């Protein structure tokens, strides 16, 4: 069903609005026509309202980076992907480098694709370990050039970004799991942003593994800080620790990622309902358990089985999957991740 065009969002100039309508009819599909109209209207408004060349350059670069990224990832949206973050300074002889290489190899062997930042260190290990053609590299242009590592198997899967914010958006939007190895400010930034987005519901739930190789105390010390300074002082809830898992072997990390999608498939918010799509129907025992244990995150009623919603049916979204629906409070995402973990044990 085509969305109704918002009369409030127009240029207000009949000639310009007419030209936009004409262009939309030639360039867009019926399903996306209203969105393309708004994008073009925004571009024209920006041109009329802003005389700052820097503003226009920023929007232009960001839009082109996003468009190209969508083009590259679009053919692979049906394949699960894991993003690997970690230090660019890790040596190829280090234990974390070897762990990242093995992690990428084993993950691609079970059908995942790998996404890295495309540089040296842990990023290089991720590309090196992945199967041929099963990896992407999202590189960043820096004043001190970050050279693309030599282990990216298909050069058309390398994307160069001017801005960190567009690069990080694609890291999150186009992947289904996150592995964090030790690293500096960049790794911490990527890790905390990932957790923040899940914690606030801006990113759908996903497995986040903090990879702690033998002999390392990196994530153990980090967790000590998080508990002492964030949890105990009330900056985050204890339940937010469910957003990630520290693992000490490659196989443990792989298992956690696989188990996260064992029963849980995906999430959708529809007309005030939170819909959990499942790979199989859960037992009556598990349904009773989650209703008892997770009443605190519901605003009303109970968690119950459901057929696809009208909206999902209209859009043809995973109509073969089982579903649970609930009135989630849209706040306690740490608890929601805990609920998913319980479901996956069924």
In words, what does this structure look like?
The structure is a single chain. With 346 residues, the chain is of the alpha/beta class. The strands form two sheets. The protein has a seven-stranded parallel beta sheet with strand order 4-3-2-1-5-6-7, with helices on both faces. It has a four-stranded antiparallel beta sheet with strand order 8-9-11-10, covered by helices on one side. Helix content is 44%, strand content 17%. It is built from twelve helices and eleven strands. The protein folds into three domains: 14-74; 76-260, Rossmann fold; 264-343, no CATH class. Mean pLDDT is 94; it is low at 1-6.
Compile the SSE list and pairings:
Elements: H1 14-27, H2 33-49, H3 53-73, E1 81-85, H4 95-109, E2 113-116, H5 122-129, E3 135-140, E4 158-161, H6 164-173, E5 177-180, H7 185-199, E6 208-211, H8 218-231, E7 245-247, H9 250-260, E8 264-270, E9 273-278, H10 284-293, E10 298-305, H11 310-315, E11 322-328, H12 333-343
Parallel strand pairs: 1-2, 1-5, 2-3, 3-4, 5-6, 6-7
Antiparallel strand pairs: 8-9, 9-11, 10-11
């Amino acid at each position: 069903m085509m969305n109704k065009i918002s009369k409030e969002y127009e240029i207000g100039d009949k000639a310009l609005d007419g030209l936009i309508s004409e262009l939309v009819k030639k360039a867009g599909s019926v399903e996306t026509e209203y969105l393309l109209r708004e994008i073009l209207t925004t571009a024209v408004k920006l041109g009329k309202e802003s005389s700052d060349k820097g503003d226009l350059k920023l929007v232009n670069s960001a839009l082109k980076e996003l468009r190209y990224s969508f083009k590259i990832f679009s053919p692979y949206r049906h394949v699960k992907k894991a993003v690997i973050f970690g230090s660019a300074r890790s040596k190829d002889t280090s234990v974390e480098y070897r762990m990242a290489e093995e992690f990428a190899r084993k993950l691609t062997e079970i059908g995942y694709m790998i996404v890295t930042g495309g540089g040296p260190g842990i990023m290089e290990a991720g590309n090196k370990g992945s199967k041929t053609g099963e990896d992407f590299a999202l590189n960043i242009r820096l004043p001190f050039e970050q050279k693309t590592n030599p282990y990216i198997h298909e050069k058309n899967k390398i994307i160069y970004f001017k801005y960190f914010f567009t690069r990080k958006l694609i890291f999150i939007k186009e992947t289904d799991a996150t592995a964090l190895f030790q690293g500096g400010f960049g790794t911490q930034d990527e890790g905390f942003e990932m957790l923040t987005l899940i914690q606030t519901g801006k990113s759908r739930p996903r497995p986040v593994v903090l990879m702690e190789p033998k002999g390392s105390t990196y994530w153990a010390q980090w967790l000590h800080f998080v508990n002492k300074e964030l949890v105990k002082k009330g900056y985050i809830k204890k339940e937010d620790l469910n957003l990630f898992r520290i693992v000490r072997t490659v196989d443990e990390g792989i298992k956690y990622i696989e188990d996260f999608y064992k029963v849980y498939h995906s999430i959708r918010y529809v007309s005030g309902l939170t819909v959990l799509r499942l790979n199989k129907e859960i037992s009556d025992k598990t349904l009773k358990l989650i209703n008892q244990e997770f009443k605190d995150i519901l605003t009303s009623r109970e968690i119950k089985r459901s057929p696809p919603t009208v909206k999902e049916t209209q859009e043809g979204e995973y109509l073969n999957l089982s579903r649970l629906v609930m009135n989630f409070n849209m706040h306690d995402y740490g608890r929601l991740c805990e609920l998913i973990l319980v479901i996956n044990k069924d």
